[in-house]
Structures are given as structure tokens and as C-alpha cells.
Structure to design on (232 residues):
């Protein structure tokens, strides 16, 4: 069955993932574009990593979370060597469904005095039983 | 008069009240596992099938007790919102 969200989860849980843009992170390297700047798929991966880190310690044994929906704005380009900090916060718990807000900032200060906003958006995940989830991928179980 | 009496008898026989519950899909989903079989006696809340949607398992439960007279889906089917899943009488 779909697992209910771990009882220790709470709105407001957050985590930050930091990263320096390298060759492998570029749109050109990832095939999502042809310029040597941070690729949008890589930004999404960083955002998802932050959401995972925000709740993983609070999930029950055997549970994990998997991504189901994303809204992402990639507002500024990040060249090779740029430092990023992507922060995710759990904003909603609806049964097994978790909704996160994330914001990615660069090292250079923006108008609000914090790092300039590179990207922002939301990520939705659902809490599942890891074993059953993987079993399900193999198709219907034998009777 | 005889005909009317016959009709009344037939009507009384054919149209006695039978609760029929059609269970339909509430979303697009894959049918992952069929749990019940036609002819099974179901209790309210028994699991009929398990759907998969948005990476989640979603059990479809009997809405009331009765006999599962029709199971309209099979494992591996892709169903749309509103599709018939089962009939319980």
C-alpha cells in the first residue's frame, strides 16, 4: 500500500544543498542545451536532492519519497565555477503527498542582501514503502 | 384481467429492489493488482483492485456489502477517470 507520511514529518522541515557548477553540470554536457552554463535538469536535481534531505531523516524505516510533480523557474544563468545553495522547505503534508518550496541562490548578493535568486519552484513527492515500490516495477505479483 | 395479474406478478418479481453499486475510477491510473473475483462476497471496505497512479498504490474499496457481479478491469489495464471498475449488488 501507499505509505502514509512518516509521523515525524512536519511542515517547516528544510535542508540546503550546496554545489559548484562543473563541466558535467552544464546544459551542453547534459544535452538539454548547447551552452556551458548550469543546465536546468541539474538545477532540478539539486532541488530534488534538497527535498529528499529535508525529510529523509524523519521517514519511518523502509520508507522513502519519490518525485511526482515539479514547477521550476530557472531565472539566471550560472557559469562554470558558480557556487549555488538550494534550499527546500516542506510546506504541505497531504496523506502520503508532500509539497516543497525551493529556492536556489548564487554566491553574489541580490537585492534582498541574500544570494541572488537563480531559480525557484515547487516539488511534490509521495512517501512510499521502498520494497513495495520496487516490487511493483516488476509488474503484478504472482498469485 | 388475467393478463394484468400476470404482469403484476412478473413486475413484482423482476423489479424487486436490488442495490447496485457501480464503482468507477476517480483518476487516470494503471491497474496494478486485481484482488477480488466476480462472484466474491464483499464486505464494505474490502479491497477490489489496487491501482497505481502518481507512483502511489491506491486501493479501490467496496462501497457497501454485496456480491461482486462484474469486474471490468484486468491487471495492466490503463483506466481513465470515470471508467467502470466493478459492480456490486
Amino acid at each position: 500500500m501507499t505509505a502514509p507520511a512518516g509521523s515525524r514529518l512536519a511542515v517547516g522541515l528544510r535542508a540546503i544543498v550546496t554545489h559548484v557548477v562543473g563541466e558535467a553540470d552544464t546544459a551542453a554536457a547534459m544535452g538539454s542545451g548547447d551552452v556551458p552554463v548550469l543546465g536546468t535538469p541539474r538545477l532540478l536535481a539539486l532541488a530534488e536532492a534538497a527535498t529528499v534531505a529535508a525529510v529523509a531523516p524523519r521517514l519511518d524505516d523502509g520508507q522513502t519519497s519519490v518525485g511526482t510533480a515539479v514547477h521550476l523557474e530557472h531565472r539566471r544563468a550560472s557559469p562554470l565555477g558558480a557556487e549555488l545553495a538550494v534550499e527546500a522547505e516542506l510546506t504541505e503534508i497531504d496523506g502520503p503527498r508532500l509539497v516543497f518550496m525551493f529556492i536556489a541562490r548564487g554566491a553574489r548578493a541580490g537585492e534582498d542582501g541574500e544570494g541572488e535568486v537563480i531559480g525557484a519552484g515547487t516539488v511534490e513527492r509521495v512517501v512510499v514503502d521502498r520494497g513495495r515500490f520496487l516490487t511493483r516495477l516488476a509488474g503484478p505479483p504472482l498469485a | 384481467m388475467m393478463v394484468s395479474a400476470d404482469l403484476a406478478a412478473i413486475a413484482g418479481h423482476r423489479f424487486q429492489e436490488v442495490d447496485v453499486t457501480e464503482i468507477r475510477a476517480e483518476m487516470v491510473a494503471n491497474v496494478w493488482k486485481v484482488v477480488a473475483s466476480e462472484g466474491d462476497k464483499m464486505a464494505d471496505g474490502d479491497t477490489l483492485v489496487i491501482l497505481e497512479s502518481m507512483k502511489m498504490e491506491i486501493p479501490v474499496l467496496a462501497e457497501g456489502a454485496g456480491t461482486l457481479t462484474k469486474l471490468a478491469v484486468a491487471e495492466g489495464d490503463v483506466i481513465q477517470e470515470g471508467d467502470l471498475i466493478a459492480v456490486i449488488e
Remarks:
- The helical segments of chain A are 27-30, 40-55, 130-136.
- The first strand of chain A starts at residue 14 and ends at 20.
- Residues 61 and 73 of chain A are 34 Å apart (CA to CA).
- DSSP finds three helices and five strands in chain A.
